[in-house]
Amino acid sequence: MHIDQLERKWAGISLGIAGLFVVLILISALFHGINAPSHVETIDSARLHLSEEFAEDKLGPELNPDGSLTVRVVAGRYGFYPKTMTLPAETNITFRWVSLDVLHGVHIPMTNMSTMIVPGYVAEVNTVLHHTGDYPLLCNEYCGMGHAHMWANIKVVSKDQWLEMYNKGEANHG
């Protein structure tokens, strides 16, 4: 079998470019901490309200001993619950999302926060909100007729202001 020298040259260039892209993707993933999910956590969506972690009085932000936050949010039938939340800026925040019914997506514009919320699974995203202000929380996966009305609001305040609110019990559910 004979391969023309010009074809061999262009095949080599093409494979070289593809290899370069693979190397760049791997380097980028290592430096930015991007990896495939390794810990898949399941939950019974039909019994969500009976669960210890996602009971109605446990939703919203919870201050951890190390100063970070865990925020539990439920997505379902055209809303995120709690509907409004106040969160501190410059704080490590772990969002834990679950769905009551169908596939939802969540996106906070102007941040790196975006994920899919699959029924029966817990979606976990770690982020830091750097700028104070109001942020909409939007569903970015079509979930039914009321999809356009599926939103919530996050108000980001300074860390000191949030701690003061939290200690007074004003930051727990918005």
TrEMBL record:
Subcellular location: Cell envelope
PANTHER family per UniProt: CYTOCHROME C OXIDASE SUBUNIT II, NITROUS-OXIDE REDUCTASE
Domain Cytochrome oxidase subunit II copper A binding, first and last residues per copy: 66-169
Keywords: Copper, Membrane, Metal-binding, Transmembrane, Transmembrane helix
Any GO CC annotation of this UniProt entry: cell envelope
InterPro entries in the cross-refs: CcO_II-like_C, Copper_CuA, Cupredoxin, NosZ/Cyto_c_oxidase_sub2
Top-level taxon of origin: Bacteria
TM ranges: 12-34
Protein name: Cytochrome C oxidase subunit II
SUPFAM superfamilies per record: Cupredoxins
Organism in which the protein naturally occurs: Methylomonas lenta
GO MF, any single term: copper ion binding
